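tool=predict chain=A
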Amino acid sequence: MSEKKYKVRAECPHCACGTVSHIDPETLKEKFIGDENEIDVLCPLCATGHKGTIDKEEG
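tool=predict ok
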């Protein structure tokens, strides 16, 4: 059976931080995975709001 995997890509325009590790996988599944390809992310370092993308990967 093939399991779908998702990759979150986000880069803060203010500090260039690309981490989304502060968002646990359950929250990502619950709030963001669906029809939308773009999500709102709050940078954990400087608290700047920006857009991130979720890419589906076949695994």
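The mean pLDDT is 78. The two ends are 9 Å apart (CA to CA).
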